[in-house]
Amino acid sequence: MKSRQKKGLILVNTGNGKGKTTAALGMALRAWGQGMRVLVLQFIKGGWKYGELKAAEKLAPGFEIRQMGEGFIKGENDSALDEHRHAAQQALKAAGEEILSGKYDLIILDEILYALHFGLVSLDDVLALLAQKPEGLHLVLTGRNAPPEIIERADLVTEMREVKHHFTSGVPAQKGIEF
Amino acid sequence: MKSRQKKGLILVNTGNGKGKTTAALGMALRAWGQGMRVLVLQFIKGGWKYGELKAAEKLAPGFEIRQMGEGFIKGENDSALDEHRHAAQQALKAAGEEILSGKYDLIILDEILYALHFGLVSLDDVLALLAQKPEGLHLVLTGRNAPPEIIERADLVTEMREVKHHFTSGVPAQKGIEF
């Protein structure tokens, strides 16, 4: 029988459904409960994620959420695309530094795949990030449209697929659920 | 424009992939951060979920995880099936009471769909639970094989689909990730 070995994993939550970021946060909570040090780096700043930010404050130290990046892109012709790109590059730089810092056991690169999909960061840069991951560190990447090269490199990939959504029946975003 | 309305939702996390319970926990964290009172009722006791249990302790009051049920079933001929059924029925009873108690804003019925799939609780009983949900309460149901009747009744359904898993390449369960 194989003895239990410690191995930092690369995990990907992708797909068009809900739960990509939320599952990453749940994982963060689980890891934190195990005494691990957790960093969430948000590549897309989401002002509505107020609940998590407040929770993270209460769980500090050892649970840190850093909001970087800009908000979601308003279509292909978003006039602020340069700002988005600049902000995402800053997040990428921070990710590179923290991955090598040895300060964390689990780092969540939230919506990095969204930034990748919109060309705010390059595939080469993201693959370079993964390549420098220290052995013991767990990395979680979230966002739609995970490209095959990332899936190839990952240990665990889950697709969150939308089966039914209340927005389509006119129910608006709910406090504690969507924000 | 529609004004923001408060409506308790029924959410379902299903599918063969990872992240059903984890996303529910992330949602619990988000809700808790918003000052909501959260109860997680585990229909299948999972001893390895040590991380969350410790985190929940730190987040108390307002974040409660109650382990009920027995462990996962060891195949169709599990000799302890009666015990499993009894434990799941107890969890169902507790769920019914807490749904009506007014003490929570979000209740997660973790792995209730697993219990349903193995016949530990009946579809009628679960539908009856949903029918008595007070307007403002959010309910989350997790587990594989959500039946159509539950999907029909739910507001938001997400399928977590396994695309790739490290177990299949021989990497064992990792602390902070799987337990």
Automatic annotation (TrEMBL), chains A, B:
One Pfam family, short name: CobA_CobO_BtuR
Record keyword Transferase present: yes
Position of the signal peptide: none
Keyword Secreted: no
Keywords: Transferase
Single annotated GO MF: corrinoid adenosyltransferase activity
GO BP terms, alphabetized: cobalamin biosynthetic process
Classification via NCBIfam families: cobA, PRK05986.1
Protein name: ATP:corrinoid adenosyltransferase
Species of the source: Pelotomaculum thermopropionicum (strain DSM 13744 / JCM 10971 / SI)
Gene: BtuR
